Amino acid sequence: MRWKRKIHHGGPSKQQQVSPLADEVCAIDKEVSHLCRIKSEPSQRTRASIYAGQKRPVSTFKLLSGRESNCSGMGRFSSADCSYALRKHLPVKGPWCVDDMDSEAYISQFSADGSLLIGGFRGSHIRVYNSEKNWKVHKDITCKRLRWTISDIALSPDQQFLAYSSLSPTVHIVNVQNAVRESHANITEIHEGLEFSDDDDEFSFGIFSVKFSKDGRELVVGNNNESICIYDLGANKVTERINAHVADVNVVTFADETNDILYSGSDDSLCKVWDRRCHKKQKPVGVLTGHLDGITFIDSRGDGHYFISNCKDQTIKLWDLRKMSSTTKERTMLHCIVRRIKTVLQHACPMGKGNIFRLTSNAYKSCTPKAYEWDYRWMTYPSEARYLKHPYDQSLATFRGHSVLRTLIRCYFSPMHSTGQRYIYTGSSDQCVYIYDVATGKVVEKLRWHGSIIRDCSWHPYLPTLVSSSWDGYLVRWEATEDDRDPSMLRTGKQRMHPEGYTMSFVL
């Protein structure tokens, strides 16, 4: 907490205590609020035609009647008008059951056109559902040679092939559009294996993240060998291997349609930006600091400028590439960071009084103020650390409220078509889906029903439908409208902590 002097006209000044989050909310307003409003509020032309330039809320009825009478002169809604009308109808009703499995649901992802939904479950099960045919199973895939679980799934841009990874150096490819509905690996159908290991690798690593390039010609993976690997599907080999971080690379993704820029996030708490056109491909073109713990996921806004990251420090951060620093500048800040963090911790919780805070050796390796030791897989987040802030935080905004424990929980921008990317949504270990308003930083909705951790969720690219996947074994959907007559609607009291037939085991 800090103190700020507030002046009252006609009287003496007095002190007012300011929340440590106040500056973060202001940062959202200054940096991205205007961009969000342009994409998700009625266009100037529409507003002027309805209210003659007055700044008043525009009802859906006014929008529709204005379109019918062609007040704007366009004869149709603009994309911003569509987003404004649809974002009033968030998918918060329900949920309804899509599937109920006997193992934890790890992944739920819509295809680019929303026609398919992919669900991945611990062990060896993947199901592809047809969202246009009442969520009927389009393909039932049984995987082989997995270690522990399916760690990630990616669908090719043409929706022909599905790639899946686990905690091994092999990614498997399966055709999801052929006539084989029951796909048992190497029994009813060949699941081609792509080998990412190298002769120089000292141990067999696991893959945490896999993505297709936008043209479908390459696969990029992040792994616990601290590297990023790019596989050329035409040449059938790994063509690039980048020693990216000093800890596990939990996520890697393409920035936009060009395939030239990559974002990566690691347990060293850094977000790094890679330009494949540069000659020095082993060096990032920029580093973004601000998180205080391992990064679990990154989602790009798709415009080549903004992306968000989820982190074990219990925050989501919004970033702008134009604010990134060089690695050289970052290293020169290291000693200043360490000194400042030490000072903060000595005041907050002095050493020698049973607290768990200390500066680890990783802080010096990764140039990051790793100020405390804890294990997110089985410990709760230290309350003393909840509002610690990186002294050189380069993010535009920080979103707090959800919980990131026990697994690599994911976060995303809401769809452009239906919301103008006005929102950020995320799973959470407190069994809820959180929806944040990017323009204000506030939690606008919390979807509660699941009985266990929600690791992943996916918003339909065009319809007001959101699917969440939980460790309770359920894949469920949330809608903007309610239908009590639908027998698949799940009622309160039907929740459970574990899937049916669950056997206790250590969970990563």
TrEMBL record:
Pfam families: WD40 (PF00400). PROSITE patterns: WD_REPEATS_2 (PS50082), WD_REPEATS_REGION (PS50294). GO terms for cellular component: Cul4-RING E3 ubiquitin ligase complex. Keywords: Repeat, WD repeat. GO terms for biological process: proteasome-mediated ubiquitin-dependent protein catabolic process. Signal peptide: none annotated. The keyword Repeat applies. WD repeats lie at residues 242-275, 288-329. It comes from the Eukaryota. Belongs to the WD repeat LEC14B family. PANTHER family: DDB1- AND CUL4-ASSOCIATED FACTOR 11, LEC14B HOMOLOG. This is LEC14B homolog. It comes from Panicum virgatum.
